[in-house]
Amino acid sequence: MRGFRLCSSKRMLAALVFILLFIHPGHGQTCSEGFAYDRRARQCIDVDECRSIPDACRGDMRCVNQNGGYLCIPRGLYSQSYRPEVPALPEPVYPDTSGGAGGYQNPSTGVGGYTDTFLPGPPRSVEPSYPRVRGTAPCTLGYALAEDGTCNDIDECETNSHHCNPTQVCINQAGGYTCSCIEGYWLIGGQCHDIDECRYGYCQQLCANVAGSYSCSCNPGFVLNPDGRTCQDVDECEDEPCSHGCFNTYGSFMCNCDEGFELAADGTTCMDLDECSFSEFLCQNRCVNIPGSFTCICPPGYYVYEDGRSCEDYNECETGNNTCTLEQVCFNYQGGYTCLNPLQCPTPYVEVSDNQCMCSAENPQCRDKPFTILYRHMDLSSGRSVPADIFQMQATTRYPGAFYIFQIKSGNEGREFYMRQTSNVSATLVLTRPLKGPKVLVLDLEMVTVNNVINFRGSSIIRLTIYVSEHPF
Q1: CATH 3.40.120.10 for domain 197-233
Q2: CA atoms of 110 and 79, how far apart (whole Å)
Q3: What percent of the chain is modeled with pLDDT above 70?
Q4: Strands 456-468 and 372-380
Q5: Which sign does the torsion angle of CA 207, 211, 213, 217 carry?
Q6: Model confidence over 28-72: pLDDT tens digits?
Q7: 219 neighbors 206 (Cβ within 8 angstroms)
């Protein structure tokens, strides 16, 4: 009875496998556990675990192969000497060629006929062989008699009556059990071995193998996706880690700073850039650093030019921003101004114009004095490069037979100037040494007129006042 049930079960499984293989043929066939794909037969065939797995059943257990698995059955309950019942098969017959139409003859007689033509009879039906149970137990092996007289399956896995290896997992089946491996392990030589999933690229970035499983993680700058395997870039800029600007990159981020700032050593904060320390020529006068930029400051009497760096003289006389009275004359120079009082000619000179005094030749007091004194004013930048032509004078009246001599009569005690005669009637005042301001210099430039024809010698004076600025601009 037991053998009949096992045989029927195996036929049904075989028929089911045949149907599955018939529906899903072809290369790359994936078979269920306990089956292997046969390329020649083009179908999944049962794997005989009793032969392929050494010591599949331990102790006093006998391995019985099943479609897709195997059973471990105690040997004491079965007879080791059994013989499969094989039904008789009909003898094959061959066509009779003795002259009869459609006759057949037994091939053992060897009489005539088409000896190379075989007409098969019905297919053989061979029952698979299983051990027979000794004795007359009311239930088959793997079942227990219940109080109601029915046979209930014994769960060998729950009662711990199985013989699976410590590394295997017991799976109960009707009338027996199967030894398998849990997820994350595979069966090699009857033992369950851990699968190293990290070797097969299960994780996109970092992988740590653990017993029966694995764990994926990501590099800094990435976060693990819900699938537990792939990694997604983290947009660090959403948390505003930079003090100024942030640029997200794959797996990281970069901070940038506004103009006038530089990135600190921590890579996230921005420090003010001291532009004034780069060069002393950034501003014409003085550079003042401000957050993110700089500004140029000019001294009093100057303003910052349109370029933002150079200083331009502020003309107080033109703008009216001065303290001169109506009687005075405002004179502007680099970085300042001065108020000139009305001309007062010294005795015996008389005023002939706003800036000229004359001593008449008819006046005995003027005999040894210059004929005229002309007042002039000019400004000069401090530290001006030398030599430099700064002032020119010439005779306005020419007499026949006369010649002219130009010289510095007074005010050149430091010998910063000299007169260079450029023609018979003109000369140029030359600066020979740099002047450091602020200071005011007064030079008397004399032009001597000599006429030997009429035995005449006279002179005229230009009283030049020079305002030297404090700054070189």
Answers
A1: no
A2: 44
A3: 80
A4: parallel
A5: negative
A6: 556 778 888 888 877 788 889 888 888 888 777 788 888 778 888
A7: yes
pLDDT at position 43: 78
C-alpha torsion sign, points 111, 117, 121, 124:
positive
> What pTM was computed for the model?
0.52
- What residue spans define the domains of the chain? 2-81+126-194, 197-233, 236-272, 275-313, 345-468
Q: CA 394, CA 211: separation in Å to the nearest integer?
A: 112
Is residue 429 pLDDT above 70, yes or no? yes
Q: Are 93 and 108 in contact (CB under 8 A)?
A: no
pLDDT of residue 418: 96
Indicate the burial class of 242 (C-beta count within 10 angstroms; 0-12, 13-18, 19 or more).
buried
Give the CATH class of 275-313.
mainly beta
Provide the CATH topology of domain 236-272.
Laminin (2.10.25)
Average pLDDT over residues 382-407: 92
Q: Give the angle subtended at the CA of 48 by the CAs of 71 and 25, to the nearest 5°.
A: 120
pLDDT score recorded for residue 428: 98
Domain 345-468 has CATH 2.60.40.60: yes
